Amino acid sequence: MDVRLIHLAQTALAVFLEALPFLVLGSLVSACMEVFVPRAWVERRVPKSLPGALAFGVALGTVLPTCECGVVPVVRRMMGKGVPVPAAVAYMLAAPVVNPVVMVSTWVAFRGDMLMTGLRAAVVAATAVAVGISVRRMVVGGALRAHVSGGPDACGCGCGHDDAEFGHAHAGPASGPASGQGGGQGGAQAPLLPQFSEVQAAMMAVPAASAAAGAASPTLIPPAAAVSRAAQVHGVARHMTADLLDACAWLLPGALAAAAFRTFTPPEALFLFMDTPALAIPALMGLAVLLSVCSEADAFVAASFVGFPASARLAFVALGPMLDLKLMAMYGAAFRRGLVLRLVVLPTLCVWAACMLLAGLGVPE
């Protein structure tokens, strides 16, 4: 077999395995968010103003660290829970860089260079805010693709759940056999697991019937925690599996494309762009997109480009966590075309403009 094909397979597998743990973590976080976090709770806590929503999204990235490999499933669940599109987009772009793990890895990779570490976080945060402002008029229905929007098709109540198995409460008349659980608008299908209220009613009916017949019977205590916990664990596993399989289906083509570039592009092809920032910055931005290295490791790759200007290496570590081949594939799977175009074009322009400005000012050296 051709040595290059073996290298292609090994590299693609390495990219996939590098991303997989973070994708699993992201899918788990998104599934837990879907099951345990009520939509109303989220809506009450996210600021209503645009500046507040953007600040909330960027700040959330510092306390809820997520690699770019797993952030897309988390963000689409956030949108389904009522987080405004600008806040969700700002979090999605900023979280892979502004979290403490990546900040420390950047500092280590660049040998304690606090300026490079700070500039990376600043450029990414500013880009996240700019993209968030560009989608300020976009609603969730216009951002998410239909099959992941968590709309009325997923649950009759329109709450964003994929089904009504968790007994979530809604304002309005109590649901019953005639209306369907959750106040379905169009007849939601019966859940696979029974509602806890139904289990409780059935269990309490036994001693009541026995007492009416004059028989002595022990008091039955319905295992509320056990029933609800079983439903929640089932839901987390099901949502996590669905998110993980959906993301992996789009991660594989991205990993193959990145591996093909690494395998078939001669290293000397990059030497043509090393002399001037005007050429080096776009070259390393393109390389960041093609290599698709996770944000926890990309600083070490950038630090190895010793012949390139610091501004070009900054462009590499700033753009890569917001835009690469695997992310473009995952963006296309989760979001509508208008949002995908913004996620591709605006980070590219913002990072290029910021790094060219810094190069002109001689920062960083």
TrEMBL record:
Compartments where located: Cell membrane
Predominant cellular place of this UniProt entry's protein: membrane
Transmembrane domains' residue ranges: 12-33, 53-75, 87-110, 116-135, 270-293, 299-319, 339-363
Listed PROSITE patterns: PROKAR_LIPOPROTEIN (PS51257)
Source domain of life: Bacteria
Keywords: Cell membrane, Membrane, Transmembrane, Transmembrane helix
Record membrane topology: Multi-pass membrane protein
Family: Belongs to the UPF0718 family.
Protein name as it appears in the record: Permease
